[in-house]
Recover the amino acids of this structure.
């Protein structure tokens, strides 16, 4: 009996057999990849990923570690054997022929997914050295023992070869989709590389989940029938929305935008734009679309991203309120703090943030980009959670320009290969379909098409060029503007400018506040709460409010002023 893990409790050794662990990993990988049509490929990768543990050397190593004997971590390599079998026995060695092309691709993809589950390797590095070749020529005797034991103790060579043939059929369908999706060879190759990442993601998750279940007796949460869950959440949101009034032109326009989003949810999964004016209620409207779309198409999860924590905190409150079930919502960002005395809650949070297995994810754009591109195993693990999901990207114009090619191609892959629905939200939509490596947006992609009458109520501002002035002249200019309005916002480009203006203007007969990104989140939240209170109190007392801020307030903070002075 070969052990994958040994858990020593009260002196007794509990064995997690390698066969059970490989079966668990295969099962979880197959389940994750099934919506993308890659269940058998995931099963094949999961089965063989730890075949390197079927050796006497690894058994001594893991037993010594369980007995607290000194062992050098990584001294027994168990990830080379699977690569050696797949490339050595299922890959052409004397040049690629037309009959072997797909077989070679499948061998490489599964070898990479299985062999890199404890750390990625380059098929070819910058020096031209092959990661596959290194694994083929290293640790040969141990790998031969592992492969022999794996096939004699676990599964026959014939059965595994038949499984690879089924995987080949799946990969061929994916390969054909990648060829149709990619305009040029480089794009098609890029899409194939994302397939490698997807397979690796499923193996990493399956491996970590199986290990956690045995070693820590971790219970992974289940959420039941997703269509029933989405129906319940949608009903809760619709009941709250039905109480909205359309007593003003802006409220009537917001209601119409929201209704258009609800109706558009019947459209098939794809890439869509939600381009509505500032103040149009796109957070709630996008949530309404997402819940209805998830219910209609049985989506696995809804992921909301925002570029800045100030927007994220604001949006999270709305999303939680209208979903009505905090147990299905995960916030994954740096501001989440779990108190030390809440051990179970901390464990649950860490588990879900590593796997993104919660139905609703609220996270940052950075975390999404990490999930798509970063090389850390924790980021790669989450990639398979994007399959059959709805991804709502708020303020999409903030995607870094040097990442647009990667971002566009990844979105194309998620929509066409993984069945994801992507919603690009912004009042200032970038034209991502017109760049060299374009986003695959089809006609009719606007969830709320432009309508002059619908946009009109949101045009509440008049922009005036105030000319040039020195920084120390601005306070007098600001006081002149304040004499005409109840509230005033001054937006600066630098923290030093904001501080100087605040020091100059505080101490007058109005409430004066300062905001900047250098404030910790808790301080900034408290200050914003005071600003909201001051604006509200001023409606009755007549006392005026002045806020001096850096650009942090421009990132989607839901607040209104009678006048804004913007430094250029």
């Amino acid at each position: 009996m070969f052990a994958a893990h040994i858990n020593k409790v009260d002196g007794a050794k509990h064995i997690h057999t390698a066969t059970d662990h490989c079966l668990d990993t295969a099962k979880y990988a197959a389940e994750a990849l099934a919506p993308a049509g890659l269940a058998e490929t995931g099963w094949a990768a999961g089965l063989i990923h730890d075949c390197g543990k079927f050796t006497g050397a690894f058994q001594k190593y893991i037993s010594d570690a369980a007995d607290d004997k000194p062992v050098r971590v990584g001294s027994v390599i168990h990830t080379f054997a699977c690569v050696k079998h797949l490339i050595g026995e299922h890959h052409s060695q004397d040049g690629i022929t037309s009959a072997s092309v797909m077989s070679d691709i499948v061998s490489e993809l599964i070898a990479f997914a299985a062999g890199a589950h404890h750390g990625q390797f380059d098929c070819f590095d910058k020096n031209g050295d092959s990661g596959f070749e290194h694994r083929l020529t290293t640790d040969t005797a141990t790998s031969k023992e592992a492969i022999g034991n794996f096939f004699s103790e676990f599964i026959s060579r014939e059965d595994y070869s038949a499984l690879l043939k089924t995987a080949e059929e799946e990969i061929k369908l994916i390969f054909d989709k990648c060829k149709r999706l990619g305009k040029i060879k480089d794009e098609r190759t890029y899409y194939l590389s994302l397939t490698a990442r997807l397979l690796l993601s499923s193996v990493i998750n399956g491996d970590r989940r199986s290990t956690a279940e045995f070693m820590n007796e971790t219970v992974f949460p289940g959420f039941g029938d997703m269509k029933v869950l989405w129906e319940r959440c949608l009903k809760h949101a619709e009941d709250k929305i039905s109480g909205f009034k359309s007593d003003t032109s802006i409220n009537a326009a917001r209601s119409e935008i929201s209704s258009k989003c609800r109706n558009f949810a019947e459209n098939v999964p794809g890439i869509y734009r939600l381009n509505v004016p500032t103040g149009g209620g796109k957070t709630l409207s996008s949530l309404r679309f997402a819940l209805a779309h998830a219910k209609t198409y049985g989506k696995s999860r809804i992921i909301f991203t925002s570029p800045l924590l100030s927007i994220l905190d604001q949006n999270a409150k709305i999303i939680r309120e209208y979903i009505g079930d905090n147990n299905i919502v995960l916030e994954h960002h740096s501001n989440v703090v779990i108190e030390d005395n809440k051990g179970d809650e901390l464990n649950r949070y860490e588990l879900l943030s590593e796997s993104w297995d919660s139905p609703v994810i609220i996270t940052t754009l950075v975390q999404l980009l990490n999930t798509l591109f970063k090389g850390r195993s924790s980021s790669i693990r989450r990639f398979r959670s994007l399959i059959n999901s709805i991804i709502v990207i708020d303020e999409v114009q903030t995607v870094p320009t040097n990442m647009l090619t990667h971002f566009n191609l990844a979105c194309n892959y998620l929509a066409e290969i993984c069945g994801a629905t992507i919603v690009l939200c912004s009042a200032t939509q970038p034209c991502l379909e017109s760049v060299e490596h374009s986003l695959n947006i089809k006609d009719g992609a606007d969830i709320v098409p432009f309508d002059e009458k619908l946009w009109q109520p949101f045009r509440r501002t008049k922009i005036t060029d105030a000319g040039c002035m020195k920084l120390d002249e601005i306070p007098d200019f600001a006081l002149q503007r304040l004499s005409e309005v109840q509230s005033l916002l001054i937006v600066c480009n630098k923290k030093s400018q904001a501080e100087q203006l605040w020091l100059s203007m505080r101490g007058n007969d109005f409430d004066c506040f300062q905001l900047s990104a250098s404030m910790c989140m808790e301080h900034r939240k408290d200050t914003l709460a005071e600003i909201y209170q001051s604006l509200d109190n001023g409606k009755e007392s007549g006392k005026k409010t002045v806020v001096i801020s850096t650009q942090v307030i421009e990132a989607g903070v839901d607040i209104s002023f009678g006048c804004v002075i913007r430094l250029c």
Notes: The first helix runs from residue 18 to 33. The longest strand covers residues 3-9. The CA atoms of residues 397 and 430 lie 6 Å apart.
